[in-house]
Design brief:
heterodimer, A: about 120 residues, mainly beta, 7-stranded mixed beta sheet, 4-stranded antiparallel beta sheet, globular, B: about 110 residues, 6-stranded mixed beta sheet, 5-stranded antiparallel beta sheet, about 55% strand
């Protein structure tokens, strides 16, 4: 009964490079959420996806950030041309299809460092 | 615009005593509230939740209280144990879509 998997756990990128963060939801979960935690801050919602659909991306920066959750494979959070301010912990969470509202299950996070 | 606020960044409690963690929110449309616990280098772990139709939910040593008129919820842990030392986040949502998290309270339970 694997939980939410995220890889890599640590990612170092130089300014201007691209970062790709992967999230495999729990088995049976079709909803994925991405959050960012900056140092000394709480979790900030970025995007909510279902398979092949972006449901809510109101927390995503307008430029350089994109997310997808294809029919097959993990969800990907992509950050183009990274800058030092992108350094943060990025958490993915998944939840099953909604019946009664259910809680989200979090992965261990990917810590991105931009040098 | 922080819609969910945890005004105490840290809290220290003696083992065996009660820990009370507080959370305030501004959006009256929130209808579901959750508490998460987070250890360093790990993702948050769900603890307990409450819907807006209730004012209390209990699970073992953990109880969440909701005061809708005050837009306030609290998490009570009793008795507190050293293993409870972690960062606690409250979160709120409207219809379970986007979840808004507080900034967390770091709880230290002193043996």
């Amino acid at each position: 009964n694997a939980g939410v998997m995220q890889n890599p756990r640590h990612l170092v990128r130089r300014r201007g490079q691209e970062a790709r963060l992967r999230c495999s939801p729990m088995k049976g979960h079709s909803h994925v959420y991405w959050y960012r935690q900056l140092p000394e801050e709480g979790l900030k919602f970025m995007v909510y996806l279902q398979k092949e659909n972006i449901i809510d991306e109101s927390g995503m920066p307008k430029e350089r950030f994109s997310a997808e959750f294809p029919k097959e494979g993990p969800s990907i959070l992509r950050i183009q041309q990274v800058v030092r301010g992108d350094s943060a912990a990025y958490f993915c969470a998944s939840s099953p299809p909604m019946g009664p509202i259910s809680e989200q299950y979090f992965g261990p996070g990917t810590r991105l460092t931009v040098t | 615009d922080q819609q969910v606020k945890q005004n105490s960044p840290s809290l220290s409690v003696q083992e065996g005593r009660i820990s009370i963690l507080n959370c305030d929110y501004t959006n009256s449309m929130f209808d579901y509230f959750l508490w998460y616990k987070k250890y360093p280098a790990e993702g948050p772990t769900f603890l307990i939740s409450i819907s807006s139709i209730k004012d209390k939910n209990e699970d073992g040593r953990f109880t969440v209280f909701l005061n809708k008129s005050a837009k306030h919820l609290s998490l009570h842990i009793v008795p507190s144990q050293p293993g409870d030392s972690a960062v606690y986040f409250c979160a709120a949502s409207v219809n379970g879509n986007q979840f808004y998290f507080g900034t967390g309270t770091s709880l230290t339970v002193i043996p």
